[in-house]
Amino acid sequence: MLPFQENAVLGANGLVETFKKLWQTGVSNLNVTFKSPTGSGKTFIVSNFLRELQNDPGFDSDVAFVWITFSDELAMQSRDKFVDYFFPNIGRELRTIADFSEGILQRDDILFLNWQKLVSRKAENRVLRRPEESEKQKEQGFYFEDVVENTRNAGREIVMIIDESHKNVTEAAYRDVIEPLCPRVILNVSATPSKIPNASDVQNLRAGFVEVKRKDVVEAGLIKEQIVSQTEEDLTAAEGEDLDFALLRLAKEKREFLAEEWNRLGKNINPLVLIQLPDDDTKLKDQGVETKEELVLRYLKEKCNVPENKIALWFDKKKSNLEHISESDSPVEFMLFKYAAGTGWDCPRAHIIVMFREIESPTFKTQTLGRILRNPLPQCDLSAFPELRKGYLYTNYRKNEIAEIPSTVENKPKTEETTLALHLMGNFAAKEAANNMVQKIQEKMLPDLMTQEKSAVSVAPALEKALQESAAPLLPGLFNENSTRVTEEQMVYDAFGNADLKATNLQLEEKIFKAASENLHAVLETHFGKNVADKAKEMLADVSRDFAEMLAQQRSSAFIVDPLLKSDFISRADYGDIGKASAFQRSFVRSMNDYFGISENAFKNPFAQEGVLEKAGIDTTQTLSDEVLVNATFAETNQLGKNVQHEMSDNEVEKFFMKACYNLLEEQTEADAKYGNVARSWGPFKEALRQWFDRYAMTAIDNIGRYKIFLKDLFRNAASKFRPAITKALKDYRPVRDAFVKERRDQEWRGAEPFKVKTQYAYSNDYEDLAGTSKSLVQPFKIRKNPPQTEIDFIAFLEQSENVKWWFKQNDEGKDFYAIRYFNTADQKERLFYPDFLLQLKDGRIGIFDTKGGFTASNPEGRETGLYNRIQELNAAAGFEKFIGGLAVMENRQWYFHTGKNYSYSVNKLDEGWLPLVKVLG
Q1: 556-602 confidence digits (pLDDT tens)
Q2: Taking CA 115 as the corner, what is the angle to CA 109 and CA 117, rounded to the nearest 5 degrees?
Q3: Would the pLDDT of 393 be above 70?
Q4: Omega before 754 cis (within 30°)?
Q5: What is the pTM of this model?
Q6: SS (HEC) of 320-371
Q7: Rounded distance, CA 214 to CA 314, Å?
Q8: 676 touches 621 (CB < 8 A)
Q9: Are 123 and 117 in contact (CB under 8 A)?
Q10: Which residue from 105, 308, 321, 545 has the highest number of Cβ atoms inside 10 Å of its Cβ?
Q11: d(CA 382, CA 532)
Q12: CA–CA separation, 80 vs 401, rounded Å?
C-alpha cells in the first residue's frame, strides 16, 4: 500500500480503528462513510481494510461481509480485483449468487452482489427474492432471505459494504436489502458521498467518517494535479473558425503534443480523447439538423483523416472499437459517448475530454472529469514534463452552467414502467390471437367457408379456449394469479448458476408454439373439416408463433378489451395546432410582408429587399456570439475561470433556431395567437418562417446567416422587432384556421379501431405507487401525486368488490386511453373526455365510470350525456346489457352512480336516478 492508503486503513482514524470503535457500541445499522477521490484505489483500500480486520488480534467477532454494487459486471469486477490483490493468500471465501446453494455465509466470507437483482420491479429479475406466497416458492435451493436468516441464526453478524453509495442507497434499497440484512455496520464508499456525518455523530460513535485527501493522491502520482480548460488565448487564436471545429482541433493538437511528450519520456502511451455528446439533439435529425455525433465523425474522418479503427463509440445501442481500449498502446485515439462512460471503467490514458453543451437544460457535470483524472503510469517521475501532469478540457459550456452533480444515467429524465397484470395476460393474448385467426380465415378462405355455409366468427370461442389450453400448463402465472410465471422446474441456468431467462423463454416459446398449432388445427378440423384445417396451416403457424412469442418473451403488445368498445379521437385540425400547413404558410408570409412593408416585387429579388429589415430596426450583420468558459482549473479547489464572447458554431446556431421556433409558439399569451399543441405546430411554423426568409426577406443570405440575424434580434427580448410581427401573423391566421375547422368538423370526428390496453405503460416521476391495488389491470399501479380523494376512495371500493375482475384507471388525455366524444355545454364545442375507470365484472360485463364530487358533480358540462349516449349505443350493438356505467359520487360513505338520463345532482341530496353502486358491482 502507498502511505496514504495505509493511513486510510491502519491510521489512528483509519477504517480499522473507526470500525472497531463503532462495533464495540453493540448498536446495529451504524454507518461509516469512506470518502476517497476517483483514482485513489478505493476498492484496493477497502479490500486491505477487510484483510487487516481479519488479521487484527483485537477483533475476533464472527462476521460475514456483503459487498454491494449496482451491476453484475461490477460485482464480478470487485471480486476479481480482490483475488488479484491477495492471490494466492486470499484467506477467505469469495462468494457470488452462484453460492446461494450453500444456504449460509460462513465466517469471514464476502458475498459480492448486484442489488438490482434484489430491488428490481420486474419479477423475472428478482429471482433471488423469496415470494411471500408459500405456493410460489421453489422446492429446492435458497433465496436471499434464506441465506441472511441462516447466517444470523448461526450467531454470525453481517457487515455491509456499498460501492458508489451516492447513487445506490435508494428508498427501495433500504427497504429490500438493508433492512432484511440488519447489518451491524454499513460502509458507504464514494468519491462524492451524498451524506457526510456531522462531527457530533462521529465524536459520540453514532457514525464514522474516514477521508482520503486529494493532495495525498496527487503526491503519490495516482491522479493528475489538475484539469485545465481552453484558455482565452486559445479562443482568440480561433477567431473566425467554427467553434465546434475549433474545440475538436484544439483537442486533437493537444493529443498529438502529449503523445510526443510520452515518446520523449520513452513510454509507449497513446493519449485518448473522450468526446461527450449532448443527448438532446437526436430529435432534431428529422428536421435536417446535423447531430453532434455526425458533425464530430465528419470532422475526424474527412478533415483530419482519422481512420475508422481509431474512433470508438460507446452508446447504449451502438458500441464499436472498445476492445482493449484501456490498454496504454491501444490504437484508438478518440472515443464518443453521451453519459459517463461507465462507473468502474478505468482508462488512465484518457488525457483530454471535449464536452458539448445541451440546448434544453445545459449543465456541466464536473464528475465526468473524473474519467481523465488518472495517471497512466502512477509512480513515473513526471517532474520534467508538466503537461503530462494535467488533464485537458475543451467545451462550449458557460461558467454559470457548471454544477457539482454526478454525471450518470440517473440524470436522464426518469420514467418508470407498469405492465399488464401477469395473471390477466394469458386470457387477453388468447382472445386477441383467436380474433386474428378469425380475421385471417375470413380474408383468405372465404370461398371454402361459403361452400360449407359456416361463419368463421362462430369458431372464435373454441379457438380462444384452445390457445388458453396450449399455454396455461406451461405458464400458469399468466392465467392464474396464485401461480408463478415460470416454475422452478422450467428454469434454465447458465454455467455460473445464474438463472438464464433468455434460454428459459426460448424453450417455453417453442413448447407453446407446438401446442397452440396442434390445438388450433384440431379446432378448425372439428368445425370445417380436415381440408380447411390443412389449408390454414400457414396461418395457424403465424398466429401460434405470435401468441407463443408474446407470452414467452412478454413482448410489448396491446389487447382489445371488447370489439364494440371503440375510442373516439379528434383528427389533426382540432388538436389545437396550426392545422393545414400550406394555408398557414400562405397566411404567415402575407402577414409578415404587410408588417415590414414588403411588396410582391421583392419575391426572390434581393435588390427590392435591400434595407427593408434595417429600416425596421433589425441588425442584419451575420454574426452571433455566445459566452464560453475559459481559464478554468479543476483541482482540490476549483477555479471556474470566466466567460468570454465567441462566435457561435453553425451547428449550435441551427439548434438554437429550432428551439427558438418552439419557444416563440409556447410563449404566446393572447388567445388568438396561442396554439395549444406546440409540438404539432412548430414544424409548420418553422417552415413558414424559412419560406419568408428565402422568398421575401433575406434571399441573398444563406440559412446560417438568416438564423443569426433572427436569433440576434430575438435575444433583444422586449426590444425585438420579429416578436410582435410573429404574434400578429399568428393572430391573422386564426380566422383562416377556424373556418377550416368548421368546414371539416363533420369529417374530423371519427371512430377509431377498438380500444386496446397495452402490456406496458410509461409514467414520469409525477406518479407514485399506490398500495392495495391487486385488481388493477397494470402492476404496479401508479397514480398522480396528490390525487383527488374521490379516486382513492373509488379504488378502495373496487378492490373490496367481489364481482370486479379487474379495473383500469385512465389518464386525462392521450391515444393510449379510452375517450368519449361529448358536447361541452360550457364552451359550446364538441370535446373528448376520458372516463376515470374502465372495469370488467366476473360475469363479463364492462363498466365505464367517471368519479365526481362537489361542483364537478353538479355541473359535469355535458359529460353525463355523452357517457349515457355511449353506453346506450354499445348495448344496442351488443344486443343485451353488456355495458354499465355513469357518473359516480360518494354520499353517506356509499358510492352511487347515475346513468346520465335526466341527470341532476345537489350536494348532500341525491335525486331520482342515482343507484347504489354496490348493487351492481357487489
Answers
A1: 678 888 888 888 865 544 566 787 889 999 999 999 999 999 988 88
A2: 110
A3: yes
A4: no
A5: 0.57
A6: ECCCCCCCCCCCCCEEEECCCCCCCCCCCCEEEEEECCCCCCCCEEHHHHHH
A7: 29
A8: no
A9: no
A10: 105
A11: 83
A12: 39
CA distance 320 to 304: 20
> What is the rounded distance in angstroms from the CA atom of residue 641 to the CA atom of residue 644?
10
Cell output for 233: 488565448
Question: In whole angstroms, what is the distance from residue 85 CA to residue 205 CA?
Answer: 31
**Distance from C-alpha of 713 to C-alpha of 645, rounded to nearest angstrom:** 17
**How far is Cα 77 from Cα 58, in angstroms, rounded to an integer?**
31
The CA-based dihedral angle spanning residues 518, 522, 525, 530, taken in that order and rounded to the nearest 10 degrees: 40
Distance CA 242, CA 571 (A): 44
Cβ atoms of 82 and 69 within 8 Å: the answer is no
Confidence of residue 406 (pLDDT cuts 50, 70, 90): very low
Give the span between the Cα atoms of 25 and 208, in whole angstroms.
12
CA distance 687 to 573: 18
Q: From CA 709, how far away is CA 620, in angstroms rounded?
A: 5
DSSP state of 846: E
Query: What is the per-residue pLDDT across 228-240, written as a single tens digit (0 to 9) for each?
Result: 999 999 999 988 8
Residue identified by cell 399569451 is: 669
Cell numbers given for 876 = 344496442
- In the block, residue with C-alpha cell 483523416: 305
Q: Tell me the residue length of the chain.
A: 922
Q: How far is CA 459 from CA 278, 447, 451, in A?
A: 55, 17, 16
pLDDT tens digits, one per residue of 667-692: 888 888 988 778 788 889 999 999 99
Dist CA 798 CA 808 (whole Å): 10
C-alpha closest to that of 863 among 825, 892, 895, 837? 825
Beta bridge partners, 35, equal: 190, 211
Cell numbers given for 638 = 476549483
Chain segment 744-795, per-residue pLDDT in tens: 655 554 545 788 998 888 887 778 889 999 999 998 999 988 888 899 999 9
